[in-house]
Fold this sequence. Notes:
Layout: H1 2-34, E1 36-42, H2 54-61, E2 67-73, H3 79-89, E3 94-99, H4 101-108, E4 117-122, H5 128-132, H6 139-148, E5 151-159, E6 162-164, E7 167-171, H7 172-183, H8 188-199, E8 205-211, E9 214-220, E10 222-226, E11 248-253, H9 261-269, E12 279-284, E13 286-291, E14 295-299, E15 302-306, E16 309-322, H10 327-330, H11 336-381
Parallel strand pairs: 1-2, 1-3, 3-4
Antiparallel strand pairs: 5-6, 5-16, 7-10, 7-14, 8-9, 8-13, 10-11, 11-12, 13-16, 14-15
Amino acid sequence: MNKKYNKCKFLGNLDIQGAIITEVFSIFVTTMDKKKKIVFILNPISGTHNKVVIPQMIASRLDKDKFDYQVKLTEYAGHAADIAKQCAKDNIDIVVAVGGDGTVNEVARSLTHTNTALAIIPCGSGNGLARHLCIPIDIKKSIDIINQCNIEELDYGIINDLPFFCTCGMGFDAFISLKFAESGKRGPITYVENVLKEGLKYKPETYEVIDETGAKKYNAFLIACANASQYGNNAYIAPHASMSDGLLDVIIMEPFTAFDAPQISFDMFNKTLDKNSKIKTFKTKSIRIHRNGPGAIHFDGDPIMTGEDIDVRIENRGIKIVTNINAENHEEQSNFLLNAFSDFFNNINNVRADIEKRGRRIQTINKVLLRKLTKNGNQGRQ
């Protein structure tokens, strides 16, 4: 009897142990299933950082309780887009673009209208989208943002069937992007060199701009369409742009003189460009722009030659992006003193413009008087 009882007790214990093992295994599997799959796409030659240490930083900083991760290196132009596209097909939760604006665009355009979210570790010279989203340029801190895993559905733009996520445009900025690409050198110094070298001899163009309100013609130095607020390096071409309003910010920069250039640059870095008298801005869902001939356009700083007609539109909430949950707290505020200087210089420009207008009027009156005097003098001699 005791033997039989002990045998039953032993078998009962086995059942309990088996149930516990099954439960633990089930919890383990469930935990594994809850982990998000994340792929880091690293362009080893783009940007400004030493890429060798980044995989080590990912390994030490990424939250392994939240993520199962892989690091994939690009091997050729367009490889990042191919990897990202495959990740979306494989239902990877997050794909991280590790590189500059070009790498970010390449990865992001493969993730539009999918369930796979884009994240960014900014390693470029401009980092326009990362800066707009308040993602730190510091690699470790940007990994911390990924650990927060705050995902939002945001807008992106399309120019002539080419997706962009920050800005696109034509005119001087596209021309400079083309020269920058042709120079074969990277970094802000090369960019500034091109601006200074080409800026004085660049001739504005005439554009016909068509939106839902009708058609207007502009003689413009450049036309930019912005989904995000800046080009990069905190140069705010559209300081009030939002990636969640379903609208493009259109910026038309009218021709300006060498006297105006410092103020325009100042306003761009101070988030006050919209106050400048040479700037016209409006918001729209789509726009068509016609110019007199073919030329360069750019999308997120990448230049391409295209024809006379350019179509730009917004895709509302078409991409999922990992954002900074504390972005509002980190948003840079315009400096009060800089704003005061900006207003001062803009007032000077307004006064100067008024003086120039009056000067032209006086010159016209002088010419009329001169003609009358000449005519009267000739009649007197007759």
